Predict the 3D structure of the following.
Amino acid sequence: MPTDTSPGLVIEIAGVTKTFAGVRALHDVDFTLKRGEIHALVGENGAGKSTLIKVLTGIHSPDGGRVTRNGRISTIYQEVNLVPLMSVAANLFLGREPRNRLGLIDRARRDTEAKELLQSYGITADVRSPLGTLAVGEQQMVALARAVEADADVVIMDEPTSSLEPREVETLLEVVRRLHESGIAIIYVSHRLDELYRICDTVTVLRDGVSVHSGPLAELPRIELISLMLGRSVNEIQKHGTTAFGEGHHADTRPVLEALDLTSKPRINNIDVSIRPGEVVGLAGLLGSGRTETAKAIIGALPLDRGTVLVAGKPVPRNVKAATRAGISMLAEDRKTEGIIPNLSVRENIVLAALPRLSRFGVISRARQDRIVDAFVKRLRIKVSSPEQKVAELSGGNQQKVLLARWLCTEPKILLLDEPTRGIDVGAKAEVQALIDELAKEGLAVLLISSELDELLDGADRLIVLRDGEVAGELEGAQLTREHVLTAIAAEVMDDADSHQNSH
Amino acid sequence: MTLTATRTATRTRWLQDNGVYVAVVALLLFNALFTANFLTAGNFRTQLVQAAPVLIVALGMALVIGTEGVDLSVGAVMALAAAIIPLYLGAGPLTAILMALTIGLAAGAFNGFLVAKVGIQPIVATLALLVGGRGLALVIADGQLVQLHDPAFLALGTDDLLGIPISVLIAGVLALTVAAVTNRTTFGRQLVAVGGNRKAATLAGLPVDRVLIGVYTICGVLAAVSGVLATSRLAASDPADMGLLMELSAITAVVVGGTPLTGGKVRVLGTVMGVVLMQLVRATLIKHNLPDSLAQMIQAAIIVAAVYVARERR
Amino acid sequence: MTTLTKATRTKVLQRQGAAVALIVMVAVSWLVFPRFGSLDNLRDLALQGSFLAVIALGMTFVIITGGIDLSVGSLYALGGVLAAWGSQYGFLAALTLPLLVCGAIGLINGLLIARTNMAPFIVTLASLLFARGLLLAITDEGATTYQIPPDSAFVELGRGTVFGFGYPIFIAAALAVVGGLVLNRTTFGQNVFATGGAEQSAVLLGVPVARTKILVYTTSGTLAGLAGALTAAYLQSGVTVIGVGTELDAIAVVVIGGTLLTGGMGTVLGTVIGVGLIKVIQNVINQIGTLDSNYQSVVSGVFLLIVVVLQRVLRR
């Protein structure tokens, strides 16, 4: 039962805590939303943004704390949640269609009303055509129109611009401003700092499920905001001093991997990456800057507009099988959907990619398999009751090691690691970091993607900084400092900040 | 999760994994006690001979279901195999059998192509052959039931080898082979990986398309083998009735045997026991003089109950 | 002149492909077979098509929700037997008994599918078996064929004519019009599209997905029962052996009519055209005389395949 909030507040939550299967998603979070306010909610992946939104909208009930709402909430999601095969007008009015005297849907009126309504959102497409034929930006706008027309007092927008073209972003921001003027409160989730500084009044920064900052946005310098988002996880600072990475590696000779002009619009544009044997190259940047896409482009899992990948000077055909054969391996970011095969045992998960080499005439040699699995379980210190244990039963850290072992037994030359330490406990994290170090020392070329700046600074010999799908800078040696990276990420943003402040 | 909920989940899972064995033992015990002439060699022989064609189809179906697919066309493929036999029997039984198996191979490869390369959902892809396949078989056979007289071919359905009916022997050997393929070969492991997590399998560089085409081809060939054996036992080619509702029997046996419809797991022994269980159910109902009508309704209820128990928890 | 975009090309093919094929088939048949165009033949064709059309109407709704109903062939046969048996108690019994029983089985299908997340094909395959069993149970294992008294008003439902066109044709046409209105002009119809088009989104959009599924399977069962009743009235008896494979014919005509087998898109008019196409082909095969009548299901299968592959390829 929602109780009344303090005057002027549409949402007020205090001390909210939420835990999923032992993992803390939100811890003692306070959050208030004033009437007519545009409130930015920022944080990296896994910081707790989606959980907070779900608590706000009532999809999740918190384990502890107080939630009070005073008004109707509508949410629009990053993935457009409409029905692509139905017409634009049908989507807009689904569930509240205008009717004629016979009680049937008045299609003419529905289409006219839809057309008029959408015009104010800058959409001129035929409202009778299937929604799926519209550009993603236009679809997003239809979703927004639908959310607003439901007489909402609060509109939550979860990454609304992540797949929009610049022009579409302008239209969307214009609509947001209009909503703001009509007194609707907005929670705006985005990591595009330009947008945030242009339209938001207030900001709340989440990190590891904790609200690390909340206050007026204009008073917070951008470099500070980025620093707040990318900071070291709070609990780790308490337990450990540093990461487990060792000293830098001396990389020698020519690059074993050269990726040139990787372009897949609008996600990445003109990205060059080269790694020498024994070198760890870090990919830095905010969420959505094109880090994962770059790695996927290298291994051939992302269709490209243009670009070449060379291994030891030889071009690699653009598919995963060829890339794997050429010696590239990728540890995917999402262990559950792109990594482990849950029904199979630890042993089977480890040998999966190397099966053809472990079998003769298609029949698997169990002895060779066991030898390899034993060796990797020991070397990577994978904690299992037996190699026959189902991989789904392992902890996140051990699953990650299993996946690492899967790739190591294909004897790769290049290892692409996408957030290898996300969501695993502190001890396992240090072990994985030490392992990466060890592998590089043995001559592997490693591409390391991480949202944690310290992990990148300690672990990488060289950093490529991405911003909005493009390379914003390369840092090496003495330049590998927090300030340099933050400056590179914020560079363009900084110029903007001045003009923004002047305009106020 | 509360303690009771955990306990219920554990119990459900145990039932999913072992329910089929318990049910088979229970039915055997029941029949041993209450059914006259049940514990005789002759009866077991009859039961096994009747179960053999279903088992052979179910083995292929288990592999397909392991890849998170389904093959609705197995009954139609059996009918096609049956229709082919009399056309080539004049050239010798071996030629006739090879031609029938070739049809199964082509049908399976075609299904696999639609699923893997064109990207059509398995149920939709195999539906076309379910709709048209039996009609094609009837066209080939001129809509006629043809009596077969080739003694060598008929021996397949009537004779013994080492005291075991040949069809049962073939089914047994095929079950062992499929078990070995599933557990001991690259192909088998890749198959389960594709069904368990197709995205991960692709990212791991597995030949996903080749595995899918292979699996549907095997399923088609096994359906044809089953069609050949059933035709031989019947001593007639009967495309109108051959393999009618076989897709249901095969899917039921596989699911009852503990292979989930969501893929990622193939239980060959479970499938064998699933076939045995459904055969025992039918035999029990018949031996106790329950009319066919009631038997069908009870089987339908058992199928729904089994699928309900076996469905993956969300 | 503008070039056709991919989307319009898909739309034209889906919407008009079957219609164009039907027109061509009719025109050619008219020219080649003199008997084809005779009023008697056309009346017979329409009557034969009307039974299938009633079943396919329900199937259209089911398939648009992304499901499939394999039990309709058995329910069709069961409906006929129930109607014939009920006719001894009068018109009302003959009509309502098949609707209630087949509707109830459809309801059970819907409940199992919507509430337990079991796959539609396996649930409805099981009820295919169940309905056949039930049919055998009420006909002494298929030995009894119930006759409808010739003077019964119920017979009129199947055999009565207006201008020589049988009542079932008008019933099927009326149901198709109502079905089209329900699908396109009611909230329930919109829910059907949303459920099949994007189930997860539909839930977030507030569509009662489970209720929608239960309703479509109930409708499908009821309509199959009605088709059975009409057939029994026409044949003046409850024939036990009909309906084997009818579910496949129904699926084929729905898909050939442009309804997406994966759900989310489809029209009643398309289904009616699909029925017309299949029945004309069957008629022509019969006219040729020397051709095996089983060619009809081969043609259905081939058409189904072409449509499904085209839908997939054009969508890429």
